[in-house]
Specification:
69% helix, 12 strands, four-stranded antiparallel sheet
Length: 530
């Protein structure tokens, strides 16, 4: 991995954010610079005060004491203020990145789902974005500390050029050493991040499919895979920790060695008479300040490595190309036949058709215009219609529908478009009205992430109610009743038929109660219409 390849994603991700957050970045940079300069001149003011006191220059002494008090006060105020600005900047950068990822996920849902699991995307939105958002402030802190170093070096050059030379050579050398120690960190963090993604994906799969695993008796196999992935993640984490420990040690040892060298040189010059006593005080105070740039460089290298690794993951999502939608035809006809372009399956307008096939998800996506090869509606490909109008007219519910956490009302109607009566009607049509009586708060009762606070059958009926709400002209359902018992399935089929009468509904299922009430039952074998 070259420096350019690892830096490019981070640079491109933060480029837009830097423009949007230019004001807080400038404010933070100014506060950091003032704080660094105020801290850097404090040793010089201290030595000057002692020199003025020896010469009994009262007026000069008063001015210098006032300047020292002002420098200390300004440094304190700027330090507190910059930390507040840094936290706000971090939150705003993180929020901006989350919005970018959310927008990309909304526009390239299929492409992203084919490359990343939901748990991997969740890890990017939480851990990775937090690491990237810490980088801009860390970089400014490093620049400010270097400027402070130059200020110290300037007045040390007046006091003693050998000391100034040691500072100008020694501090950058020790900062370079911390960068060399941190070099392996990025590669190890990259590997550790991959392992974490694998564990997150496995954990999500096991959580969602636990009932299936129990039914198959495959729990030990899943547990074994998760254990192996966890052990590999632990080993990768230990390797990362070793480098981070070396960095922490270097952040203490290297400044200590440098300070010891400066103290030895200062003492030697003072003993030989080449350094006055007042200048020696300035020198000692300055040598303590010079620990700051080295420690700042150590922290910056850790932050930069973590940010680069995280940025590659985020950039891989943001760089995912969404297939453009070129359709412009309007309006979408509400009573027209749908013909699958591959199997030739005909779904008559206004009917409830049950289709049995080997790959219901693929057929369902074609019939709703989601996949690359779309069905034809009124003789035209679904791709030729305006996307906004098509999504309003045609609704698709897959075998596994996502369900966000929140109240029942928010889950069914996230845009708050319908009143309680409309929602109650949709719940009744899905035979899900009894679920409200079991939740505290009814429509305001809370549903956990992905519907884990309800049973599989309840979750499926709630998802069906969400699809029915709004009464779309065309509704495509994939295996909508697989988690229901036979009695409930019959009741759901009967109610859906009554609710959707006169509108086009396609149920992709192998048998079941919908066959008994359907207008058409179509069986497909190996893409051949039977």
């Amino acid at each position: 991995m070259t420096i350019s390849s690892s830096t490019e994603p981070l640079r491109r991700i933060l480029a837009g954010g830097a423009k949007a957050e230019r004001r807080p970045l400038v404010v933070f940079a100014i506060l950091s610079l003032i704080s660094a300069v105020a801290g850097a001149i404090t040793p010089w003011l201290t030595g000057s005060i002692l020199f003025s006191a020896q010469r009994t220059n009262a007026s000069q002494l008063i001015w210098l004491l006032a300047a020292l008090a002002s420098a200390i006060g300004v440094a304190i105020v700027c330090n507190v203020s910059r930390h507040v600005v840094a936290e706000r900047l971090k939150l705003r950068v993180a929020a901006d990145l989350r919005m970018k990822v959310a927008r990309k996920a909304a526009h390239a849902t299929t492409e992203i789902a084919g490359q990343f699991s939901s748990s991997q995307v969740a890890t990017m939105v939480t851990r990775d974005i937090e690491k990237v958002s810490s980088y801009p402030a860390a970089r400014i802190r490093l620049v400010a500390s270097v400027i402070g170093l130059l200020v110290v070096s300037a007045y040390l050059l007046v006091i003693s050029w050998p000391i100034a030379l040691l500072v100008l050579v020694g501090v950058p050398t020790f900062m370079w050493l911390t960068a060399q120690i941190a070099k392996p960190l990025e590669g190890r963090q990259d590997l550790h991040r991959d392992k974490l993604g694998t564990v997150a994906a496995l954990s999500g799969d096991i959580g969602l499919g636990l009932r299936i695993l129990r039914g198959l008796g495959a729990e030990p196999i899943a547990r074994g895979r998760l254990t192996m992935a966890s052990e590999a993640t632990e080993a990768a984490g230990v390797r990362v920790a070793r480098i981070e420990a070396a960095l922490l040690i270097s952040g203490q040892v290297l400044p200590g060695l440098f300070l010891a060298g400066l103290v030895w040189l200062g003492g030697h010059l003072a003993a030989s008479g080449a350094l006055p006593a007042t200048s020696l005080v300035t020198f000692y105070a300055a040598s303590a300040y010079l620990v700051v740039p080295i420690s700042t460089a150590t922290g910056f290298n850790r932050t930069r490595s973590a940010a680069r690794v995280a940025a590659k993951r985020i950039f891989s999502v943001l760089d995912t190309a969404a297939k453009p939608w070129h359709g412009t035809v309007t309006p979408v006809p509400v009573t027209a036949d749908i013909v699958d372009s591959i199997t030739g399956t005909l779904v008559c307008a206004g009917s409830l058709s049950v289709v049995s096939c080997d790959d219901p998800e693929a057929l369902g996506r074609r019939l709703s215009g989601i996949s690359g090869k779309a069905a034809k509606l009124d003789g035209q490909s679904l791709k030729s219609y305006s996307l906004a109008e098509l999504r309003t007219a045609v609704r698709y519910q897959g075998a596994r529908s996502t369900m966000f956490s929140g109240t029942v009302r928010e889950m069914l109607d996230p845009k708050s478009q319908f009143n309680d009566a409309d929602i109650a009607t949709a719940l009744h049509a899905a035979a899900a009205d009894d679920i409200l009586s079991r939740l505290d708060g009814g429509l305001d009762g809370r549903i956990h992430t992905d519907g884990r606070s309800v049973s599989g059958g309840q979750r499926q009926r709630l998802a069906l109610a969400r699809s029915l709400l709004g009464d779309p002209a065309y509704l495509v359902l994939v295996e909508p009743t697989t988690a229901l018992d036979a009695v409930t399935e019959v009741e759901v089929a009967r109610r859906v038929v009554d609710y959707r009468r006169g509108r086009t509904t396609v149920v992709l299922a192998r048998g079941g109660a919908f066959c008994a009430v359907a207008d058409d039952v179509i069986t497909l074998k190996e893409t051949t219409h039977v």
